[in-house]
């Protein structure tokens, strides 16, 4: 008989906080979501504790059976200080999150970046199961990567490893590159929306129709939907985006030689519209031997990767203790 252990995984996002009770076999027993408080830092920190408490209460698992609580944030976790920085959350600037949460929660807490959780989740239960050299690339509002090398998380000297949105892919500098990085500025969701609006303002396109006739209402989702309807301008936007994505991922493949790159995040819901041309670009730009051996796949866990990976962090931390 398997002696199940339980952990709580909390994935803190800029718009929502998700928390789930997960057992050591990877089953989610209960998941809750709450909208992130954007205007009050103390309230948003309290929401993290409340989400964990609500998940445990809803799952009906006593706290005594919970090994620990994993909390991951959309930013940087500094292992030397235990502080976190999450630029999309007002006031989350080098705050001692774990220290603030400990009085509110009865079990040990482990914190990390969300990209660490995503790559762990996919390796544990998703597209990268069984692999030890894995990169998860999240492509949504921003771009970041979680890295496993030899089965170990790669965090870097200050927890910043994986900030691939800052890759330099264009020698002609733009002001936006100074703010968010070249790769992110050219290939994340807002870049697709910006490129789509620019093109729809110059040539006829269903993108404008789907956006209700308003160029400023064109989103990445609008572009993807128009491309699915065989709108040529929208397909051109995605093809250009795929070139930048392929170049960025080629750099990752060349420097890390992973067995698999897993792609997730909102923009990758475009599926094969981006995946097929992106794979071609990787083969064009990456070190040839590494390019031939790497697999490039879409996430199998979707938005659950965060809570599963953060729970995995808590389970492993408790095992070490």
Descriptive account of the structure:
This protein is of the alpha/beta class. It has twelve helices and 13 strands. A five-stranded mixed sheet has the order 3-2-1-4-8. A five-stranded mixed sheet has the order 11-10-9-12-13, with helices on both faces. Strands 5-6-7 form a three-stranded antiparallel sheet, with no helix packed on it. A hairpin with a 3-residue loop joins strand 9 (134-139) and strand 10 (143-149). Helix 3 packs across helix 12 (304-320), helix 6 packs across helix 8 and helix 8 (220-228) packs across helix 9 (232-256). It is globular and about 60 Å long. The protein starts with 5 loop residues before the first strand and ends with a helix. The model has no long low-confidence stretch (mean pLDDT 95).
* Helical segment count: 12
Question: What amount of the residues lies in strands?
Answer: 15-25%
* Rg of Cα set: 20 Å
Specify the overall morphology: globular
Helix content: 40-55%
Residue-averaged pLDDT, rounded? Answer: 95
Q: Runs with pLDDT <50, length 5+?
A: none
Strand order of the largest sheet: 3-2-1-4-8
Class computed from helices, strands and strand pairing: alpha/beta
> What's the total count of β strands?
13
Note the run of SSEs as H and E.
EEEHEEEEHEHEEEHHHHHHEHHEH
The biggest sheet amounts to:
5 strands, mixed
Distance between the termini: 23 Å
